[in-house]
Specification:
This protein is 53% helix and 0% strand. With 153 residues, the chain is mostly helical. Helix 2 (27-48) crosses helix 3 (57-68) and helix 4 packs antiparallel against helix 5 (101-109).
Amino acid sequence: MTPYTQERIENWASDFCGSDAIREFPMPVREAAPAVLAAFLAGACEVRKVEPDELEEADLKASLLGPVARLGLPVDASPHIPSLCAAYLAYLEGEGRIGGGRVMGAFVRALSEPFSRAASGKKKPVVRPGAKLSPNGPCPCGSGKKYKKCCMT
């Protein structure tokens, strides 16, 4: 990303934070908004190395669930971040800076649950696809023999 694009993204985030659109969010969200929004849009641009007006839903998803989820946000601000990013995209469309901001915002808002899981830092549990193999259990190959006498060896 060029320094010009980075500066433009930071200015857009600053403009949003100075608008009336930010007032619907609680104070902890407002305080974190400039950094979050700049990281959100910059991260989305970095996914495919594109300018902000060329962004797609996959870019926004990767940014929200990646760099933004790892920002270490306050616990009381974290649940509001997808809505904040959605409002930001709608604002950018209203200002004529990007196209399709409202639609992309609805997509980002729908990522609230995956964002909560990603932001919590907990790893997804590994689920075994089948039952655990026991040496004295039947062999999964279907031979009718015990596993230890058939395929285990």
